[in-house]
Design brief:
By secondary structure, the chain is an alpha/beta fold. It has 3 domains: 5-68, Orthogonal Bundle (434 Repressor (Amino-terminal Domain)), CATH 1.10.260.40; 74-244, Rossmann fold, CATH 3.40.50; 250-341, Orthogonal Bundle (Bovine Mitochondrial F1-ATPase, ATP Synthase Beta Chain, Chain D, domain3). The protein has helices spanning 9-15, 19-25, 30-38, 48-58, 62-65, 80-85, 104-117, 134-138, 148-158, 170-175, 177-184, 222-226, 241-244, 250-276, 283-298, 307-310, 319-330; strands spanning 5-7, 66-68, 74-75, 88-89, 93-97, 121-125, 143-145, 164-169, 193-198, 216-219, 239-240. The strands form 3 sheets. The chain has a 7-stranded mixed beta sheet with strand order 7-6-8-9-5-10-11, with helices on both faces. Strands 1-2 form a two-stranded antiparallel sheet. The longest helix has 27 residues, at 250-276.
């Protein structure tokens, strides 16, 4: 229970500028304080009197000095296709790969709204060249920044008390400014900063690795977008290091793998249907085709930021409900439902 606690180093250093000198004055060893700040000594192994003395120096309560829940894990968004196939890594770097018009900025705006409701601080670093849809993103964030120094100051202040979700354009990756920012804000003990990268101009859509190494990749699919299936995130290609590292529950991984396999085969069959008609689908594959069709439709979802345009209220679906609905679709419990009945809904209300 004590593994996921950290020292609130930004708060400590802000309130006690000459920390080493101040620590010596109250009888603390400078090396001990330094090791606690850098993480070399886990907070759980620190003497209580040391932590109490540091809190007194900072003029704060002990529960302000110690951050709980600072570890890496999944950020559950309530967006079905994201949570199942490409879970967002807390404190990681997420990359959206899409061409203009596929809805990537709508998804970014939706993430800002949802995570702000979960007490994340939200920051958007404005690109030099404004693209269509940027204004919708700006409307959903707390802080908009226009320079590296401004982003650094805002993020450093905000992450003292909250996790930060930072939206950044690919141009900042190419210029090297994002790498500089990460170096500047790499400080032990602060709340995590989760970075979402978007390519507003769509220039990197054909590149194999448009951002470099990522913790989560969300690749958008042109066919889904053309058919009006939003969010148009490709469930077959999109992925996360949380899946690769098997850091998720076994039930999640099992259902995710089954669903990806079914969708991959469904796509092959759908290509056949588009050319030769559904009657050419082998009888042995018809069940997979029908269930894959419903499964694909289930991953569409009404967004809160789009309510004014769609007329549908936004839907937040907890991961356990999403996984249960997927399992029941794959097991045939939605076979009697029309595809339209599982499209643009939250969870499916199955008949008992």
């Amino acid at each position: 229970m004590f593994e996921d606690i950290q020292l609130n180093v930004p708060l400590l250093r802000r309130r006690v500028p000459n920390l080493t000198t101040a620590a010596r004055r109250v009888g603390l060893r400078a090396a001990t304080v330094s090791n606690l700040c850098t993480g070399k000594i886990p907070v759980a192994r620190a003497e209580v009197r040391t932590l109490v003395a540091l809190a007194a120096l900072a003029g704060c309560r002990l529960d302000e000095l110690i951050i709980r829940g600072g570890g890496v894990g999944m950020i559950e968004t309530g967006i079905k296709v994201v949570d199942v196939f490409a879970p967002i890594v807390r404190g990681g770097t997420i990359g959206f790969v899409a061409r203009p018009g596929m809805g990537q900025l709508v998804l970014l705006a939706e993430l800002f709204r949802r995570l702000q409701q979960r007490q994340f601080a939200t920051v958007f670093w404005m690109p030099g060249e404004e693209a269509i849809g940027i204004s919708d993103v700006v409307a959903e964030v707390e802080v908009v920044c226009h320079s590296l120094d401004e982003v650094q100051d805002e993020v450093s202040n905000l992450r003292t008390d909250k996790d930060v979700l930072l939206g950044v354009d690919r141009s900042m990756v190419l210029s090297g400014e994002l790498a500089t920012l990460k170096e500047r804000i790499q400080e032990a003990g602060a709340r995590p900063v989760t970075v979402v990268l978007v390519d507003t101009l769509g220039h990197g859509a054909d590149e194999e690795s448009p951002y470099g190494p990522l913790d989560t990749l969300l690749r958008f699919d042109a066919d889904l977008a053309a058919r009006g299936f939003y969010p148009a995130v490709d469930p077959v290609i999109s992925t996360s290091t949380l899946l690769e590292g098997a850091q998720l529950e076994a039930a999640h991984l099992n259902i995710q793998q089954r669903a990806r396999k079914m969708l991959r085969r469904y796509r092959e069959l759908r290509a056949l249907v588009n050319i030769r008609g559904v009657e050419k689908v082998p009888a042995s594959d018809m069940e997979t085709y029908r269930r894959g069709e419903r499964l694909e439709a289930f991953f569409t979802q009404p967004f809160f930021v789009a309510e004014a345009f769609t007329g549908k209220p936004g839907e937040h679906v907890v991961l356990t409900d999403t996984l249960e609905c997927i399992r029941r679709i794959m097991d045939g419990e939605a076979d009697d439902l029309d595809v339209s009945e599982v499209q643009y809904v939250g969870r499916i209300e199955f008949q008992p």
